Amino acid sequence: MSEPYRAGRHFLQIPGPTNVPDRILRAMDRPTIDHRGPAFQKLARSVLDGLKRIFRTSGPVIVYPSSGTGAWEAALVNTLSPGDRVLMVETGHFATLWKEMAGRLGLEVVFLEGDWRSPVDPARVEAVLAEDRARRIAAVCIVHNETSTGVRSDVAAVRRAIDRARHPALFMVDTISSLASMDYRHGEWGVDVTVGGSQKGLMLPPGLGFNAISEKALAAHRTARLPRSYWDWSAMLEANAKGFFPYTPATNLLYGLAEAIAMLEEEGLERVFARHDRLAAATRAGVGAWGLELVARDPASYSSTLTGVFVPEGIDADRVRATILERFDVSLGAGLGKLARRAFRIGHLGDLNEAWLLGSLAAIEMGLELSGVRLSGSGLRAAERVLLESP
Ligand SMILES: *Cc1c(COP(=O)(O)O)cnc(C)c1O
Questions:
Q1: How many angstroms separate the alpha carbon of residue 69 from the centre of ligand 1?
Q2: What would you measure as the largest C-alpha separation in the chain, in angstroms?
Q3: CA of 274 to the centre of ligand 1 (A)
Q4: Residue nearest (by alpha carbon) to ligand 1 atom 12
Q5: What is the DSSP letter of 209?
Q6: Among 265, 297, 330, which residue terminates a domain?
Q7: What is the extent of the structural domain holding 333?
Q8: What is each CA distance from 190 to 38, 59, 204, in whole angstroms?
Q9: Please, what is the Cα angle at 288 between 94 and 95, to 5 degrees?
Q10: Does 333 contact ligand 1 (Cβ within 6 A)?
């Protein structure tokens, strides 16, 4: 039984996958070509080049037909050996999933506990690395933008902490929900492996995973002994150098990726980041006016791509989301892991403008009221004020 038609656009306000713009849909709506032919070679060269500008690196960016989780695995298995120690930080659900994966792969994880409301503390990272006199920690892995909470960590500050400890560990960063929406600089920030995905800031459907890699990561790759096959950088780099892939690539997603890069560069990355900052500030103003509490504690670490919001005691956040979906056709992100049912997440990243955001906030405001949440004021008006005052 198919559902009856619902007029108008569905608002996909989860923090990824995000709304896929029409231009990208049209760019992908093409016959799949021979991935060993000259037309493909041109396409591959252009996206592999364009990705360097998006990740802000002069080194290679590897593209897998995978989800972001695959790119996490690729980062670890290409650079580390069984029993290696890795330092990870519990910023939330995604950091926890990456840590669990590292354990399953046979790595020994030092996990700095966190409250799921705060960013990575560079001083704690520095202290653990300074204590590690035998230099047994092979990698520090953090999540730039913790998608379960809406908290951004300061990647450059963590780099400085590693340097102050004079520690040789590799530095790996998950930027899946911040890339192409918030400032990110693989090269300048001294990141060794950056993990990305297609379905968030890049506005594509799910299906591509990325590893941007440094010289140091490549050197580690040559001696790393965790088993790897599908994820092997060497085979990829060798084929990529000729404009090809070692196995069938996600050709139509690459068409979409070329279009996404073009769109981001037409708008200008700086303007893309500023747009996300504004939409995020408007959203937070709305949440404040409703009298609800943000999951993120510290204004310095607010995410610009999503906002995590606690519902009042006695209210089930999943019921609120269900009401908003049923009544207004707007999807919001669920509270994940420790935040299940206590919080919901508003995604405000990707192909999004002011009117679209305000429509989403209006639906949320009405949905909260319908769910019996007593609001202290109009979040919609507060959000409008922010947008009016920052043209
Ligand atoms: C979405 C996301 C992931 C998981 O990506 P999948 O494509 O679902 O495998 C990992 N880390 C972060 C920070 C994310 O936002």
A1: 6
A2: 64
A3: 23
A4: 176
A5: E
A6: 265
A7: 11-18+268-389
A8: 35, 12, 27
A9: 10
A10: no
pLDDT tens track for 196-248 = 999 999 999 999 999 999 999 999 999 999 999 999 999 999 999 999 999 99
The answer to whether the Cα torsion of 158, 160, 164, 169 is positive or negative is positive
Residues 203 and 330 in one domain: no
Average pLDDT, the chain: 98
User: What are the tens digits of pLDDT across the range 240-273?
Assistant: 999 999 999 999 999 999 999 999 999 999 999 9
Core vs surface per residue 185-219: b (16+ CB within 10 A) or e: ebeebbbbbbbbbbbbbbbbbebbbbbbbbebbbe
Is 79 touching ligand 1 by the criterion CB < 6 Å?
no
Q: Which residue has the tokens 């310095």?
A: 300
Which of ligand 1's atoms lies nearest the C-alpha of 72?
10
Say if residue 206 is preceded by a cis peptide, omega within 30 of 0: no
Q: Which residue of 67, 151, 176 sits with most ligand 1 atoms within 8 Å of its CB, as the best mutation to test the pocket?
A: 176
Atom of ligand 1 nearest to the CA of 199: 7
375: Cβ–Cβ under 8 A, 6 or more apart, which residues? 289, 290, 291, 365, 368, 369
Report yes or no on whether pTM surpasses 0.85.
yes
How close is the Cα of 49 to the center of ligand 1, in Å? 23
Question: Is the same domain home to 133 and 159?
Answer: yes
- R_g (Cα) of the chain, nearest Å: 21
Paired with 17 in beta bridges are: none
Residue 276 lies in a domain: yes
Say if ligand 1 is within 6 A of residue 176 CB.
yes
Q: Is the CB of 94 under 6 A from ligand 1?
A: yes
244 and 301 co-located in one domain: no
- CA–centroid distance, residue 16 to ligand 1 (Å): 8
CB 78 within 8 A of CB 224: yes
Q: Please provide the DSSP assignment of 18-58 as one string.
A: -PPPHHHHHHH-SPPPPTTSHHHHHHHHHHHHHHHHHHT-S
Question: Ligand 1, residues 177, 178, 304, 305: which to mutate, most atoms within 8 A of Cβ?
Answer: 177
Give dist(CA 105, CA 158) in Å, integer: 25
